[in-house]
Amino acid sequence: MLIGIPKEVKTMENRVSMTPGAVESLVRRGHTVVVEKEAGIGSGLPDDEYLSAGAKMVTADEAWAAEMVIKVKEPIASEYKYLRKGLLLFTYLHLAADRALTDILLESGTTGIAYETVQLPDRSLPLLTPMSEVAGRMAAQEGALHLEKPKGGRGVLLGGVPGVAPANVMILGGGVVGTNAAKIAAGMGARVTIFDVSHSRLQYLDDIFNGRVTTMTSTEPNIRAAVMLADLVIGAVLIPGAKAPNLITRGMLSTMKEGAVIVDVAVDQGGCVETIKATTHTDPTYVVDGVIHYGVANMPGAVPRTSTFALVNQTLPYAMLLADKGLDALRANNSLKLGLNTIDGKLTFAAVGEAFGLET
Ligand code: NAD
């Protein structure tokens, strides 16, 4: 198959959808891979490495002319001209939040397979997990940074020092983000408490951390009591398909320590802190009631090299299947089939249909 890898064009998007190593794997299977010039530069992957891997370096128009285009982010308006019948597009699409893109994919007849809806039999989302792992680990790091005085924080070192207590870190939600945040915060020596509504999840966390973190049932009284003592709060809840619940209310903020930090990773689903709003890497924080709020909605964007490799590790097996078998891959692999959102002008993903009142 002819596979195209365009350079990402969204502002501050430095990831690339295939590494040179992944390109080499595709070429070895007999596929032709065309990569837009400088597509990997933001992730530290120069054109030379793609050429050595067997790719041909091309223009954006040539990359988009391939039979299958693999991307990271959903196409934006300047890329709509490339969408067409017969094109197989494999990327994050997030259609339920993007009516314009849904319409153009349907009108153009593009086959859109969305990373975020590929689902394993245990209902986990393998192509979202790597970005949650990155964001969770970053959350502890960003929290530690913003607790520093020059960043406006209360001047507390996450791990303390001999003779001085470490910081109290409160993590709301013990899923992929929460677990990864806990690993790093506990690794830095902080006192970590994870809150979750799922008892089986708390049992699992209790087992794996073996006493290095405390687990608590996520109830309003438990959160209210803990937030007063917290130096760092990390928001990591997810209720699939719904807005995140407001677990930290405006009223609770005034009970928090001056200079405490909230990193609400769940901001992309509305956040679990009433006062959180989306921010950017260039201006990541703001202050409400003396509490630093960090609400960057695309945290993995700050570490594009790690994020590119983490994403490609998970997408490559599916990309290979699509390249080898074309649309027959969907019949062969039910997880991949669940990724199909649009084909031949038809919407095939029910949640997007529900969001826009469209037939599926
Ligand atoms: P996940 O499904 O693995 O974990 C969510 C956890 O929240 C589950 O364990 C669930 O039981 C728990 N939960 C649900 N309701 C709760 C409540 N009331 N109190 C406490 N816990 C509760 O999800 P995830 O992959 O860890 O993602 C978490 C959030 O982070 C999502 O909103 C995701 O979109 C977001 N995210 C953001 C970024 C970013 O850059 N900001 C990056 C990746 C993921």
Bound molecules: nicotinamide-adenine-dinucleotide
Strand content: 15-25%
The structural domain count equals 2
User: Per CATH, what is the topology of the largest domain?
Assistant: Rossmann fold
Q: Which spans have pLDDT < 50 for at least 5 consecutive residues?
A: none
Mean pLDDT: 96
**DSSP strand tally:** 15
CATH architecture label name of the largest domain: 3-Layer(aba) Sandwich
CATH class of the largest domain: Alpha Beta
The termini sit apart by 29 Å
- Structural classification: alpha/beta
Write down the secondary-structure element order. Answer: EHEHEHEEHEHEHEHEHEHEEEHHHEEH
Q: Tell me, what's the shape?
A: globular
Give the radius of gyration: 22 Å
**Alpha plus pi helix count:** 13
Write the layout of secondary structure elements.
Blueprint: E1 2-5, H1 20-28, E2 32-36, H2 47-52, E3 56-58, H3 60-64, E4 68-70, E5 88-91, H4 99-108, E6 111-114, H5 129-146, E7 168-172, H6 176-187, E8 191-196, H7 199-209, E9 213-217, H8 220-227, E10 232-235, H9 250-253, E11 261-264, E12 285-288, E13 291-294, H10 304-325, H11 328-332, H12 334-337, E14 340-343, E15 346-347, H13 350-356
Parallel strand pairs: 1-2, 1-4, 2-3, 4-5, 5-6, 7-8, 7-10, 8-9, 10-11, 11-13
Antiparallel strand pairs: 6-14, 12-13, 14-15
Helix pairs in contact: 5-6
The structure holds nicotinamide-adenine-dinucleotide.
Nicotinamide-adenine-dinucleotide (NAD) is lined by residues 131-132, 135, 172-178, 195-198, 201, 218, 236-239, 245, 247, 265-269, 297-300.
